[in-house]
Amino acid sequence: MKYFLFIDHPKGGLDTVSEEKEERIRSYFSGIDTIETNLTLKGKEYKAVIDYAMFANLTNFDCFNCVEHCCGDAPAIFDKKIRNFILENKESYNELTKTLDILEQLGNDEDEIEDMITEEDVLVPSKYLGTEVDLCACAYTPKNGQTLCSLHSICLDKKMSPREIIENKPLICSIWPLEIILDEKTNTLYLTLPDDFTNNFTIENFYTKSCINIDFAMSPIFRRENPGGFLEDDFKPFIVTYGETLKNVLGENIYNMIKNKLLEEEILENDDFVIETEQINKVLT
């Protein structure tokens, strides 16, 4: 098994699922109700086993009031479409990230910098990443220590649709924290979320993620560093906060399968699907 979203992580090896965790995954999914269907991701079709009840978990992606660096890692080898998007929006990209200015200050001319964006796995030479270029080359810090995505911000400024936003970011950046585990032998994807029941095999630690753990978000430990935002009333089911994202990544059909199951089993009600602004459309004010 592999952690699907980390298969093309530049650091390598982060997709590895240990034998112990693989046993836990199989045991967990064999003991719960699931949706079984087909799912196309990254241009390939897989069987999918979906832990649909998890999509009702309360979430609040209040990134503008969080100082964690969830979006700070260089998460994937960037594809050609994203590289072209950066080159087409160089001024906006550099205004936010200062990445091009840094590369120029390090002695690179315009052609060399363009070659880096076109050819380097993470847009800049790895020797610069984490040193001169801190975090991801697309990350930026607007105020108070938050870490945001320049690609997402540029898309919003250009009034792009959710589908266009997703197409111009690495998949992991759009769909995180959804946990997707690949069983290569059976060509099957297992979908769930980190929580109390899955934390012993998910790659993310549920207990330290305020956006998916309301108890941690309300704790004095978290509030010491993040005094604003993360209001309790703003926590909504994952399928609601990530509605458009799920529709565009998993497909409308699978989104509706999950939604209908949650309604049929009275895990959620129709009123739960009301939200002012979904995560993908939030704008920093």
Output the radius of gyration: 19 Å
Contiguous runs where pLDDT drops below 50 for at least 5 residues:
none
Shape: globular
Q: Main beta sheet: strand number and arrangement?
A: 5 strands, mixed
Q: Your description of this structure?
A:
This is YkgJ family cysteine cluster protein. By secondary structure, the protein is an alpha+beta fold. The chain has 2 domains: 2-65 and 176-263, no CATH class; 80-160, no CATH class. The protein is built from 13 helices and 9 strands. The chain has helices spanning 19-30, 80-88, 90-97, 99-105, 110-119, 150-157, 162-167, 171-175, 214-217, 220-225, 238-241, 243-249, 252-264, and strands at 2-3, 35-41, 44-50, 58-59, 139-140, 148-149, 179-183, 188-192, 236-237. The strands form 3 sheets. The protein has a 5-stranded mixed β-sheet with strand order 1-7-8-3-2. A two-stranded antiparallel ribbon has the order 4-9. A hairpin with a 2-residue loop joins strand 2 (35-41) and strand 3 (44-50). The model has no long low-confidence stretch (mean pLDDT 91).
